Amino acid sequence: MTSESAAGSTDQYTFQNPVTRFESISPPTDQIEEHGLEADMEVQADRGETSYRGTGRLTGRKALVTGADSGIGAAVAIAFAREGADVAISYLPEEEEDAQVVKKIIEAEGRIAACLPGDLRDPAYCISLVQQSVDALGGLDILVNNAGKQQAVEAFEDLTDEQLDDTYKTNIYSFFRVTKEALKHLQPGSAVINTTSIQAYQPSPTLVDYASTKAAINNFTKGLAQQLAPKGIRVNAVAPGPIWTPLQPSGGQPAEDLPEFGKDTPLGRAGQPTELAPAYVFLASSESSYVLGETLNVNGGMPSP
What we know:
- The chain is built from seven helices and seven strands; from the N terminus they run E-H-E-H-E-H-E-H-E-H-E-H-H-E.
- By secondary structure, it is α/β, with parallel strands linked by helices.
- The chain has a single domain (53-298), classed as Rossmann fold (3-Layer(aba) Sandwich).
- Strand 2 (86-91), helix 2 (96-108) and strand 3 (113-117) form a beta-alpha-beta unit.
- Helix 3 (123-137) runs parallel beside helix 4 and helix 4 runs parallel beside helix 5 (208-228).
């Protein structure tokens, strides 16, 4: 059985060739500003606005997704809403324009969308974010730690202490802080999902700081999963491969590498954010009740453990 979305593009249940489901993009070498907006991208990403179809798998659930204004986080927030969940989205204040687009999509599904801007490098925001989410949604039973900082640096000696500090505070410290606070509210049956990366296994030489945080997230996921299992709270991770998001043209990749981004995967193309969403939905739903400490690799076929 096949189906078409309202805009005419196929959804995730349509039988289709994964090589050609999305075109192999060739982004220009032009960079956008750090913390770039989806609206600034010359080659747009597919976050599932018209290509993700829900089936009620998360009906009544309450989710907090960090970094949900764009890219993978936005795709996850949209998919969760299509599956019946209310969603709180965390993002930097300068990304408000993108966040409002995601908010409208969530609300169009009849779900609550709570926009909670702030900087995850700030411990106080990490704590207040959880309480704000609980207040807005009436509870919390799904946490997606997804926000990340990625800035390519060609020479290791040019990696500044400031960037190292910002990357670790955003990519791993916030995961510890937000999760710790969320445990005050998560009940048996709840799920924590962390975004790691193919970089944890195949680190790029220009992303030493970023890649090392992703390896730390893998370890954090496996250790915490064992600790929280007796409480009935499942912890898992998703490891994206090369996914086309604002992170890439805003300094996440060297500008000269952008036209070939993702073409070295076995599928021959970069992934789209909406292709990650089903993995998060699976790990958030009760379908994965016996899955803990797992990392689902969604990377176009790149070899990984």
